[in-house]
Structure formats: C-alpha cells, structure tokens
Design goal:
Layout lengths: L1 H8 L3 H12 L3 H11 L10 H12 L4 H13 L7 H13 L3 H13 L7 H13 L3 H13 L7 H13 L3 H13 L7 H13 L5 H16 L6 H16 L2 H23 L2
Helix pairs in contact: 1-2, 2-3, 3-4, 4-5, 5-6, 6-7, 7-8, 8-9, 9-10, 10-11, 11-12, 12-13, 13-14, 14-15
C-alpha cells in the first residue's frame, strides 16, 4: 500500500487505482491514506479536499480514531458545504474517547470559542492540557497560547514558555515562532536575539513564512553593526529572506517591505564596490 502511494505521488495514476482497490475492499488504512494524500496537507498535485473528506468518512464509520478526527475537521471547515460545528464536536469527542489526544484539544478549542458547544474557556483549557500532557505538540502550542493570553487559565508567561518549548522540541513551527518572539522581547527570560533568530529560522523551515521578515531585519541590522568591508555573506542571506517577505506580506505592507529590500540591495552594491 505504501509503495502504491509513492507511485501515485510520483505521478503514476496506477498507484492511485491500487490504493482505491484496497479501500474498496474495506481497508481502513487505505481509506485514511487516500484522505491524507488528497487532503490539505498532501502533495499539492493530489489535493481534492472534498474527496479526501469522503474517504475519511468511510473509515470514521468504523470508529478509526484518526479518521474520526479528520472527519471532524471536515465538518468544522464546512468542506461539504456549511460548517457543522455540533457534528465536529461530536466527532472530536468520539476520537478523544478512542485515545486520539489531538482531538481533545480540538474539542477544547471549540469550548474556548463557544463554537458548536456552550462557551466554557476553563473546560476548553482543561481539555487542551490533557492533550498537551499526552505529548501532542499542537495541543502544547494551543495551551501555551492560552497561558500567554490568559484565556481559561491565569496569564502566566512561564507556563506559556514551558509548553512552547515542549512543542518546539517536536518541531511545531507555530510554537517555535512564538518562542522566538519571547526571546527577542525578553518576556520572562533574558533577552537573547541570537536565540530568537535561530528559533525563527527553525519556524521558517517548518512553514512559518512570516518569520522571513523578522530574519531579514535581524540579519541586515547585524551586518550593518559589524559592517565587514566587502563581505556581503550575511547581507545576501538578509536579502533572500526579504525577497520572501515581499512576496508573502499583505498588499498593505508590500511597499514598505519592497523599500527595505531596495535599501538592502543598495547597501550590497556599495559594499561590493569596497572590495
């Protein structure tokens, strides 16, 4: 089955046909794999979110926990039409009861926001804590957010940082990004901009494209402070991140980002003349 998936990812439609044959035989793992490959986190060329939700639903009918969770996501997003938050909450509950920790915090987030269930921030935070204590990095991130904002729990930057660090250690990019901000600002820790930059680089590699602007500014400032004669290595890195920032920022901020990129490029031209 894995070999079939790999063939499909490489463009061989025979791999898809083989997976669908396994799924038609009632293989829940094949149904879940089809959903994951066609879902929003699958390869871009294979994405078909409506079809993915259909496969998740087939496996969820047999109470497969990860499929129940993914079906809940489909209901929450309204992939099949209008979001059905009550159904999402029920599916998250079923998945959580079958030992799927990620669903605990997904359900908790519904309680925090009062979406599909009565608003109960304390209950939502408690559910996220259960999932976080089971080691789920997304739940650890969400619990960190709740402590940072003081929602459902007391505002506690030390607790927030604790949960962000656990999540970042597992490569959770959102936790890594916010942890970088904490070290940059010195919120409850000694200010450490170098550590912040390393965390932002890790977050960027994990998909937080918005870290590029922070990194570009940090690297450019560092280069300007040292101003090594003719050495534009750090400046080149700053320019690369800033180019990403220009492409990814909102239209309202694009002109400002482009101006900074132009300044960096001018500084590079001047530095190269000094060689």
């Amino acid at each position: 089955m894995i070999a079939s998936a790999r063939r499909w990812i490489k463009g061989d439609l025979g791999g898809r046909s083989e997976l669908e044959a396994f799924a038609a035989e009632g293989r829940l793992d094949a149904q879940e794999m089809l959903g994951e490959l066609m879902g929003p986190n699958g390869p871009h060329a294979l994405r078909d979110e409506l079809a993915a939700c259909g496969w998740f639903a087939k496996a969820a009918a047999y109470s497969r926990p990860d499929s129940l969770h993914n079906s809940a996501l489909c209901a929450e997003k309204g992939v099949n039409g209008t979001p059905n938050l009550a159904r999402a909450a029920a599916l998250y509950q079923q998945a959580a009861e079958r030992g799927y920790p990620k669903s605990l915090c997904a359900l908790g987030n519904l309680y925090v926001a009062g979406r599909g269930v009565p608003k109960d921030e304390a209950k939502g935070a408690a559910l996220c804590r259960q999932a976080a204590e089971k080691g789920d990095p997304d739940a650890q991130t969400d619990l960190g957010n709740l402590y940072l904002q003081g929602v459902g729990v007391s505002h506690d930057i030390v607790q927030a940082r604790h949960w962000y660090e656990l999540a970042a250690a597992q490569g959770q990019p959102n936790a890594t990004f916010v942890l970088g901000q904490i070290y940059w600002n010195g919120d409850g820790v000694s200010r450490d901009q170098s550590k912040a930059a390393e965390l932002w680089k890790a977050a960027y590699r994990g998909g937080r494209v918005d870290a590029a602007a922070h990194l570009a500014t940090w690297l450019f400032t560092s280069w300007m402070s040292a101003h090594p004669r003719g050495d534009v290595t750090v400046l080149n890195e700053a320019i690369q991140y800033q180019e990403v920032a220009v492409r990814s920022v909102s239209e309202a901020k694009r002109a400002e980002a482009q101006t900074l990129l132009t300044v960096m490029q001018a500084a590079k031209a001047t530095a190269e003349k000094e060689q």
